[in-house]
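Supplementary notes for students who missed Thursday's class. We covered one full example, reproduced here. Read the sequence, then the structure, then the short commentary at the end.
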Amino acid sequence: MIRGIHHTALSTPDLDRMLAFYRDLLGFDVVSEFAWPAGTEMADRITGLKRSSARAAMLRAGNAHIELFQYATPEPAASSAERPVCDHGITHICLDVVDVDGEYERLSAAGMQFHCPPQDLGPDVRTTYGRDPDGNVLELQEIRSAENPMAL
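Structure (token representation):
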């Protein structure tokens, strides 16, 4: 059962600039900041990238979360800040689910393509990335603890 959208993720060439905008200007709270070095196999499986490395932050305003990524590797393609809304820009949309393994099985059987089976991101978060028919990335995320600061 899908419960709703958990977060939208954006890739940026300057995480500090984006934090200044979303945190300082718009008033989002920083829930967490994290990074991973190149060669982190689980990050590569989930993202579908090779030798990825990034800094990231999860922000929250009310029940909405925005996740910001600044990838160091692989080198991101340049994009224009004035790109039309029809061009790609959002890295993924996260759907909050009750049973990520069950949803993975159900959606796989229906033909949805995934980067990998669900992965544990700690003791109470399990996730996987897949693609919609147009190739947009959807994350299915199960948060097993109401105490987790990212829980809805």
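Commentary. Residues 58 and 67 are 4 Å apart (CA to CA). The helical segments are 15-25, 41-47, 100-109. If anything here is unclear, bring it to office hours.
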